[in-house]
Amino acid sequence: MRILLADNDKATLGLLEKQLIDRSHTVYPAASETSAWTQLRSDPVDIVICDLRIGGINGLELCEKIRKTQFENYIYFILISSQKPLNDAGAALETGIDDYIVKPVDRDLLIRKIEEKLGGVEN
Predict the structure, then answer these.
(1) How far apart are alpha carbons 25 and 19 in whole angstroms?
(2) Count of CB atoms within 10 A of residue 35's CB?
(3) Taking all residues of the chain, what is their mean pLDDT, rounded to a whole number?
(4) Lowest mean per-residue pLDDT among 4-8, 46-50, 115-119
């Protein structure tokens, strides 16, 4: 599975990247919206896992931008945030997010969501 991981917190980015690589996923880390968007435009992915606050714009705006762009395949979008619960869950759903996970991210929960929603397909 090709996964774009967008988070401006380098510790979270590194930890999640390692955990996903350990599960044989191809991971493209991005520390900003600009680098995330550049990656998506050059080599689309299957999943975006994005923090609510990534710098430049927020994760909801990135999701909305993805949904308004014609990509060859549907990109599954998981929003992560330390907000419990998400302040405006209705707005989040309207932007097109597929799932939401509270930080700190539970590795097993994240892997289960990826495998359940995308049929357990690996790289």
Answers:
(1) 9
(2) 17
(3) 86
(4) 115-119
Spatial neighbors of 85 by CB under 8 A, at least 6 apart, are: none
- Residue 2 pairs in a beta bridge with 26
Q: Structure pTM? A: 0.88
Q: Which DSSP string do the residues of 20-53 spell out, in sequence order?
A: HHHTT-EEEEESSHHHHHHHHHHS--SEEEEESB
Side by side, the strands of the sheet bearing 2-6 are 26-30, 2-6, 47-51, 76-81, 99-102
Average pLDDT over residues 40-50: 93
Amino acid (1-letter code) at residue 38: T
Q: Which CATH number fits domain 2-117: 3.90.550.10, 3.40.50.10320, 3.40.50.300, 3.40.50.2300?
A: 3.40.50.2300
DSSP H/E element including 30: strand 26-30
User: Residues 6 or more apart from 101 whose CB is under 8 A from it?
Assistant: 78, 79, 80, 109, 110, 113
Q: Within the chain, what is the greatest distance between any pair of CA atoms? A: 34
The more confident residue out of 64 and 93 is 64
